[in-house]
């Protein structure tokens, strides 16, 4: 476990040094400010309330989860794998006394921590913005909904991360992986719209699964079903990703 | 060691595939509340269009402002498909104003009544019009575009379909319901609805005098829906409720509640009776049927319009065009046309002809046709005649013989002596 921890800290440090985190946070910040400005404009201009303070973080989440969050997750994941393949820094890391499984897991954990940090940042900032600028409708239920919604989004993001990791282990070029990921993302989104009957099994439609947690009464069966489907995804993708990573010659 | 790792990977892959496969299958196979709702609507529409012999629908719409009813509308429709009889009763209360209307229709007649006029208008039907008036119910899901529209709606509804909850009753019937609170309604939908409402009621009073003019902080607070489906899958009632919040110019808060309730009752046991009109104000109207004008003799007579010119920036009447219908039996029409000029304006007379006779058949089943015209000198041509189906008006437009075309007016009104 000690070795895993060292590998993880090492990965986090690398991730932090690449400055992607800062860029992601700045863009999230800009989106929140822009969103808030649009809503204030709508309120003053059209006399429509737009959103209440509790709805604003949800609105931001629904935008972020389908745009910048997958985008930056892809960038970070590609950096972490393809980037190191091409820079040949992967060799150095692998010479350390840590198994490839632990190393692979550490990398994914680091990416996940990045996603979590980004989500929490957006959550806190949008809640604050919502409280300051919007008609006050603060409720405990609202706060719980917000926290749960942001946290459960981590699971579909893990699925997405693993999909990209599998791609990085198949294609050599980081740019190739990036465009492939975006292509697949858009295609699956479109397929989900056309064949809405089957959209439930596509991982792109699971990004919105946090909405299930705001329904009352809580649709436990549906949540359990979605959860085990995502766990299924995670196991398949993790195993495939690790298999490819393990076979790789450096 | 190598083998063990491979086995572990295979096992884990198998577990993953199993987990994903089983849940994915469950996801596809299970019909969620939304799918069940669509099925119920389809079954009901199909039954109404093909199987049900008679039924009663009861639709009502109520609007409340902070709990006080400001507008209500109730429409009860009784339909007997086998006898081709239909009766529609509407009661509307708008503020303090009450309005009632009644419509009855069978193969022989239709009867209209509204409380504003307090007269029963009885339209007796004739000819092939008898059958055509009654259109069979169309199943909206069988229309050509239905499948595409359904797909668009599905995509639009998206994840909202998860909000439909099903509760099964012991007698086989079930209740589908869903509640969307403000944070669950997509922000865009909320904004559009609020904006529409403001546009509709914020400035002008098109309907509902009691509706407050809300101008600030408008938003949709809640949307609720409930549908009761019987054991045969037929919708028995649908209830929709929406709450809109907003402030008026004086910062007074308003919660506007909209309620729509639809019920389907008395399937195959609805009877529609011809209303008893004894002692009521009745007006008979013989309406035009497919065979053309209803009462052709009544159109025989004189029709006129003015010959008008523009002079010194004013309209001046210089004479009259007079049309006399001498005979009309619904098919053939004949008559005379002449122009009479006032004293001093004779020189304005058309360079062409001032007088001609016309005669010929109208188009079959129509209200107009091209007929022959002939003037006193013997030259002839064609002219388009048309008869207004319900009011005493005719149109006469010569095609070949020149009249004062620039200011020619072909519309003639009946002259009553």
From TrEMBL, chain A:
The membrane spanning regions, by residue number, are 21-39, 59-81, 110-135, 147-171, 178-203, 223-245
Pfam families reported for this sequence? ABC2_membrane_4 (PF12730)
Q: What is this protein called?
A: ABC-2 type transport system permease protein
Question: Which UniProt keywords are present, listed alphabetically?
Answer: Membrane, Transmembrane, Transmembrane helix
From TrEMBL, chain B:
Residues making up the signal peptide according to the UniProt record: 1-26
State the UniProt keywords alphabetically: Signal
Highest taxon listed in the record's lineage: Bacteria
UniProt protein name: Uncharacterized protein
Q: What is the lineage of its organism?
A: Bacteria, Bacillati, Bacillota, Clostridia, Eubacteriales
């Amino acid at each position: 476990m000690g070795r895993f921890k060292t590998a993880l800290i090492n990965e986090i440090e690398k991730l932090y040094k690449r400055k992607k985190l800062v860029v992601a946070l700045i863009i999230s910040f800009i989106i929140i400010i822009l969103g808030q400005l649009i809503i204030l404009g709508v309120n003053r201009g059209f006399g429509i309330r737009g959103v209440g303070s509790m709805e604003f973080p949800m609105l931001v989440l629904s935008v972020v989860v389908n745009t910048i969050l997958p985008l930056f997750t892809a960038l970070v994941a590609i950096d972490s794998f393809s980037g190191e393949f091409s820079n040949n820094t992967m060799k150095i890391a692998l010479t350390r006394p840590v198994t490839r499984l632990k190393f692979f897991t550490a990398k994914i954990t680091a990416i996940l921590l990045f996603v979590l940090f980004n989500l929490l940042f957006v959550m806190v900032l949008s809640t604050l913005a919502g409280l300051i600028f919007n008609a006050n409708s603060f409720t405990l239920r609202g706060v719980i909904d917000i926290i749960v919604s942001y946290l459960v989004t981590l699971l579909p993001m893990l699925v997405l991360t693993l999909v990209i990791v599998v791609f990085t282990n198949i294609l050599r070029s980081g740019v190739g992986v990036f465009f492939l990921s975006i292509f697949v993302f858009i295609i699956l989104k479109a397929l989900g719209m056309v064949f809405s009957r089957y959209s439930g099994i596509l991982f792109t439609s699971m990004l919105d699964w946090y909405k299930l947690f705001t329904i009352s009464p809580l649709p436990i069966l549906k949540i359990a079903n979605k959860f085990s489907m995502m766990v299924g995804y995670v196991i398949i993708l993790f195993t495939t990703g690790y298999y490819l990573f393990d076979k790789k010659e450096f | 060691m190598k083998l063990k790792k491979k086995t572990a990977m295979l096992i884990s892959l198998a577990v993953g595939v199993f987990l994903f496969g089983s849940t994915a299958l469950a996801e596809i196979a299970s019909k969620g509340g939304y799918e069940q709702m669509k099925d119920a609507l389809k079954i009901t529409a199909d039954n109404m269009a093909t199987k049900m012999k008679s039924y009663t629908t009861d639709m009502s719409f109520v609007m409340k402002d902070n709990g006080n009813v400001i507008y209500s509308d109730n429409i009860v429709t009784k339909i007997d498909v086998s006898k081709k009889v239909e009766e529609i009763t509407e009661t509307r209360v708008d503020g303090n104003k009450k309005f009632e209307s009644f419509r009855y229709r069978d193969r022989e007649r239709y009867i209209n009544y509204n409380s504003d006029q307090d007269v029963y208008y009885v339209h007796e039907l004739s000819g092939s019009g008898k059958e055509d008036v009654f259109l069979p119910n169309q199943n909206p899901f069988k229309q050509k575009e239905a499948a595409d529209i359904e797909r668009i709606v599905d995509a639009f509804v998206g994840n909202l379909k998860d909000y439909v909850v099903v509760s099964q009753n012991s007698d086989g019937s079930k209740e589908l319901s869903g509640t969307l609170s403000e944070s669950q309604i997509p922000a865009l939908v909320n904004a559009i609805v609020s904006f529409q409402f403001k546009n509709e009621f914020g400035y002008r009073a098109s309907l509902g005098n009691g509706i407050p003019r809300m101008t600030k902080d408008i938003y949709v607070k809640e949307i609720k829906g409930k549908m009761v489906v019987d054991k045969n899958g037929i919708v028995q009632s649908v209830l929709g409720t929406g709450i809109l919040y907003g402030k008026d110019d004086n910062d007074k808060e308003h919660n506007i509640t909209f309620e729509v309730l639809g019920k389907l009752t008395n399937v195959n046991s609805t009877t529609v009776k011809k209303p008893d009109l004894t002692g009521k104000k009745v007006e008979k109207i013989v309406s035009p049927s497919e065979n053309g004008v209803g009462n052709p003799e009544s159109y025989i007579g004189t029709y006129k319009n003015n010959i008008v010119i523009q002079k010194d920036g004013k309209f001046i009447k210089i004479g009259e065009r007079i049309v006399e219908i001498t005979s009309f039996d619904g098919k053939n029409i004949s008559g005379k046309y002449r122009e009479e000029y006032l004293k001093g304006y004779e020189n304005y007379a058309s360079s062409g002809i001032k007088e001609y006779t016309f005669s010929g058949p109208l188009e079959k089943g129509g209200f107009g046709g091209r007929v022959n015209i002939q003037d006193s000198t013997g030259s002839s041509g064609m002219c388009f005649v048309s008869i207004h189906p319900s009011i005493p008006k005719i149109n006469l437009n010569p095609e070949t013989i020149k009249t004062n075309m620039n200011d020619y007016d072909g519309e003639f009104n009946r002259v009553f002596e």
